[in-house]
Amino acid sequence: MEVSIIIPTYNRAEILRECLERLLKQKFIKDEYEIIIIDDGSTDSTAEVVENVKKTSKIPISYHYQKNQGQGIARNYAIKHALGKIIVLLGDDMLVTPDFLSQHIEYHRKHKSENEAVLGFIGWDPRLEINDFMEWLTNGSSVMGMFGGHQFAFEKLEGKKYANYNFFYTSNISIKRSLLMRNPFDTRFSSYGWEDIELGYRLTKKENLVLHYNPKAISYHYHPMDEKGLADRMRNIGKSAHLIHAKYPELKKVPAKWKQSIFAIISSPPVLWILKKNITLYYYALSKKYFLEGLREGI
Prior knowledge:
Layout: E1 3-9, H1 13-23, E2 33-40, H2 46-56, E3 61-66, H3 71-81, E4 86-90, E5 94-96, H4 100-110, E6 116-124, H5 132-137, E7 162-163, E8 172-176, H6 177-182, H7 194-207, E9 210-221, H8 230-247, H9 257-266, H10 269-275, H11 279-298
Parallel strand pairs: 1-2, 1-4, 2-3, 6-9
Antiparallel strand pairs: 4-8, 5-9, 6-8, 7-9
């Protein structure tokens, strides 16, 4: 078998159903790929949804349930049991185009070295109404052309053929299984973002990772978001920053004291009030407020 698609999921039964239906309609040889779903402790109808999809599927679908332990443990389990030579890591709220798989595998057939991986493109699902927060969240260049949201930053890859470890987005990426078997996810990283970045950086240092970017390997993100979720997201990032800083101090993921002081100033109530006139700067400053709170909690 050539490809194993691995999808960790948690309480997203309905969008997972559409995710699977899209994967079953791939323009790819049916007996050359499988789908592995790791249910990370869902309490909704996820198991029933998967079972119903399996009944009509010509593609092998395996379902595994674990108590809520995080995506790293889920993915490591699936990688060990995968049959494909290529692992495609996909989010449970990602809706792919019909040639998604063929675009990933075309690159792997051209770039056969074990250390060569492929990053696909992620955009908002066209059915969603994109609010200001969602726009900011996926624009990593909105502030001074350098800083911005914390979800994706594909605008930085326009016209480029390669990406670095900062773009190790496990919502749409493919890697040789043998590489992941030697380099599993570090399960100590359980909060948003860090387990991806940590693995991408470790593969870069240890295996000389080459991350090809194929903007034609498209998945659409169906996940409406607003400012309400920013606090938890950034506090988790702040708390976990100490862990990645201890492992790789050269990355400076815990900012120096002088930089923390700047973040504290720009995220103070008076400055936030002023910045509300510029929504981009406001969200950036607000994210730093919650990040600093997480940093203090993580000490």
